[in-house]
Amino acid sequence: MKKLLGKLILKIVGWKVVLQGDVNSLDRCILVVAPHTHNSEYLLGNLAYWSLGKPLKIIIKDAHTKAWYGSVVKSLGGVGIDRSQKNDLVNFVAKQFEKDDFSLVITPEGTRSWVPKWRKGFYHMAMAAKVPIVLAAGDFKRKTMFLGYTISYEKLSTLPYEEIMQEIEDYYVKYDITPKIPANWNPDITGSQQAGS
């Protein structure tokens, strides 16, 4: 049902999904979604996943999963966590992957506002869970969701962190992604340009 609904809604709003890798890599990965400048980017990403029939999860405040509408949130992939506690998110995520196969959405910018560089949590989660990093990007100029570029766990465990980040940065520069709110997107995800200026 979700698959048909996802395809239908994307068609109605005029968006398309461009798959850039093996669709099976979406079964079990850390899904890096960027740019993250507006909530609509997440909604479109969800529809893209639905259209491909793949499982998607996102970590949210457990207040949402415990609320009266919690069952709906969980059915849409919400995984609740108590952020008031000093939770070890990296190990929490690794344990979730021990239980099930899914893509976990991470927005490394951490906010919809402009940031000087990305947070590193997504990388450490992938390493701890021994899963690949898959990249996703919503381009509002072309109305296209790019999805599936994969950095394997083998590559993650072989190359230095800096090289992985450079590969990711090069990806977003190459596809010249136009987010919903361009002023909130900083393609210099490592902060190297600011540091060198």
UniProtKB/TrEMBL annotation:
Single Gene Ontology MF annotation: 1-acylglycerol-3-phosphate O-acyltransferase activity
Pathway connected to this protein: Lipid metabolism
Record's keyword annotation contains Disulfide bond: no
Domain Phospholipid/glycerol acyltransferase: 30-141
Keywords, sorted A to Z: Acyltransferase, Transferase
Alphabetical GO biological process terms: phosphatidic acid biosynthetic process
Keyword Hydrolase (UniProt): no
Name under which the protein is recorded: 1-acyl-sn-glycerol-3-phosphate acyltransferase
